[in-house]
Write a structure and sequence with these properties.
mainly beta, four-stranded antiparallel sheet, elongated
Amino acid sequence: MSECSSAVSWTQTKSELTVVVQLPSGSRARDVTCTVASGRVAIGVSGVAQPLLEGELSNAVVGSVWSVEAEVLTLELEKQAPRYWRSAIVGGPEVDVA
C-alpha cells in the first residue's frame, strides 16, 4: 500500500465508501488519473512521481465515480456487500466496526 495519510481520508456507510484525497496545489481534473479495477485503486497526478494513493481494496466494489473540486478528489465506491469495512486499503489505517 502506498498512502500519504495526511492527504487521504475515508468515510463509509454500509453500502458506500468515500475516499477524499487532497491534491497538490494547482491540480485540475485533467491532471488526475483514478483507476479502480481488479480490487485495486490507484490515484495519481501528472508531474508527481509517486501515486497519492495505491493499493488493494479491503473488499469488493461494484461501481465507482470520482470528481475533482477545489484541489480535492472525491472517490465514491459502491460496496458489493453491505457491511462496514475495517480499512479502505489492505494494510491501511483501521477503524473499529464492532
